[in-house]
């Protein structure tokens, strides 16, 4: 596994521990890497793709699910029949290739459509690797003549959250089953034989045979007929869909209730109908806004009458943009104001905006193949923030985009193993892997860069033309570039390198008597460069030397590797800051003189007028320049000491991300110093936000700042924070019917109550986790439970995670949360070495045991833990299997690299921490991180 993928495990645990945004990666990383495309193929590349010789135009599909055993049918199977209308697009075609997976084909026939004359089959073959079914015909097909492919088959509704799968919710302790779909990227073939690539757009006619009145069927389009078949069975017939790709077809068979108002009704289990009002109202607002922004109202597609949104109990992704029937995890759609944080509300709104944006960028205009996934996901990410920002301007989402998306993309894109936005894809695993921070976040960032380059008006005009030109078709990047070029002849020359080259630039600024010299080279964390590969980018340059100049974000494009900016009296300027508002995708390093000026400005009144986004940029750049050995840690931390006076959320969020990574690089013997440093650094921020509920008048981002500050200060043992959190927790525990913790401080309260508590506190919160009907509250409770510090409680948490009480979709999140708790690692190791079989069974295979150990190895600094894992792996290699064993070996290698990094940088970091250690005079520490304080336990007893 590459260092980039190792980073993704660490990053997800860091993100999960704070839960600021939506992590785009998971500890459950695909084993196949994009960077080694051909090496991982078990068939020739062309064999994974269908040819264009046969073109589908229409599907007739009927599905009959069985949720209980019936004669000759097992529970959770389904009968299927599919007829596909196809045309031979070339001469001498005597084979038809299409996709199918996990379907028992009972009969297959080929007919000429005009007269139903059969075309005899000589044979049919199937390739398990490519999932391609080949029908070998006795005669050649006539060109431009329509034929029918007729299939009868039986399939299975698994619990793997792919294809047509089963899920459930509980009602009075009884499981209530339902069937739903997830076809992206290549899973429609698990429900019906099909041409399962985005470019093969067709129309679909769907029928569902179901049990009435127990179940209700839903699909992309409205119900047009509902015929009784007797014995409690009905056949629901749905209207013909628009021309669309197979991955966008969707259907649900569930005892759901429809609430909300058209055109955005909400489908949910009966007990959740009181949680749907916000999604419907916000969805209507966003749907209207996005349709106006792109000048293509959603109802301009006549087949789509509404944009229903369904809350699914088990759902692998956050949401899925099926045209007219968008599916979501419950926590991404359902919202109760008294039970959800402000950030959870924002997450619901932004995910809705993301999925609605796909109705144009993905559904109406579709990427031709997954190698250009960014044409779908980059636009959706852009509108996730800027679409919601227009509807909810007080949330300041346009600014949050910089830290949440641009800076997080840089984290993933700074390793040699990264990939360009446009990158070859062949297999299912590769297709899944490219749905990552590069396609999503970098895709959105590059589009945002294009907006600054073209201006917002021209950018919007070009996109409106692009959508109208490519409506109901597929798209390649060149189609988008042509739309931009019509308005600026140099547009494609500017944007294309950012999509076809991996990584991003580091711009180094040095001063001279006449101005400033700029040079660019690729930024890499490991400092290596290929001498035969010198990559440069068309570099967008903006800069500021005064507060007013930060408003200018239209760039000058520099195509050379070096450039001089001439400014009169350059040496007398208070500072020189490059990349105004961090609108563009590169890091900046300055010479010592310029860093000193920037540091002086940041420590002056109002931060010298440096824009809040540039302060966030400087914070992020310094942490990462130090990590890449470009700036010393001692110098970087000295400059970042200005944060003591910082009052804004975004610089602190960038700092929290940097400090989370730095915490993994602190020598074990220096952790007490680091604890004192963190408490001192956050001391004034704590006094600014205080441990209190938000006021009605405060800015939304100030609420987010409080949540961040309380999380860090309580976690590192701030006495006042811990005392307030414990008081809130105990009031709730002792008076659960009358006491309530405000959602925006609930995460800190839950975590601190369990961190400093005993089994009483843990069991109280676990009961809330198991009994709540609200998914967002479940998230907060799971986060709190993961803060346990006692071995018995950590083992209890892992038993919970290994049980059905934690749904499959949440098991990886639970592990991420736990590994973000440094105190848990010894207990996690002891649990896994003793219960590895249970963990493998609960998660699906020993691969997940290997991933868990690997996640520990990239975080721990303990030699004894490393040795325990190494001994376990060597002793149990045959049990683990080659994949899990390889993951542990990779983790051991990363442990050694991290240990070396710590030793190499210890002196500089330690010197700074000792110089800044004012804890005895200014900070009272109740405990160091990961220790349960006797004092706080005594405080609990007094409540």
TrEMBL record:
Peptidase M1 membrane alanine aminopeptidase domain boundaries? 293-496
The UniProt record gives the binding positions of Zn(2+) as 354, 358, 377
Which note does the record give on the cofactor?
A: Binds 1 zinc ion per subunit.
Checking InterPro entries in the record gives:
Aminopeptidase_N-like_N (IPR045357), Aminopeptidase_N-like_N_sf (IPR042097), ERAP1-like_C_dom (IPR024571), M1_APN-typ (IPR034016), Peptidase_M1 (IPR001930), Peptidase_M1_aminopeptidases (IPR050344), Peptidase_M1_dom (IPR014782), Peptidase_M4/M1_CTD_sf (IPR027268)
Q: Which residues form the active site?
A: 355
Membrane spanning segments where? 920-940
The cofactor named in the record is: Zn(2+)
> Keyword annotations for this protein?
Aminopeptidase, Cell membrane, Disulfide bond, Glycoprotein, GPI-anchor, Hydrolase, Lipoprotein, Membrane, Metal-binding, Metalloprotease, Protease, Signal, Transmembrane, Transmembrane helix, Zinc
Q: Which GO terms describe its cellular component?
A: cytoplasm; extracellular space; plasma membrane; side of membrane
**What residue stretches are annotated with the ERAP1-like C-terminal domain?**
576-877
Q: What is this protein called?
A: Aminopeptidase
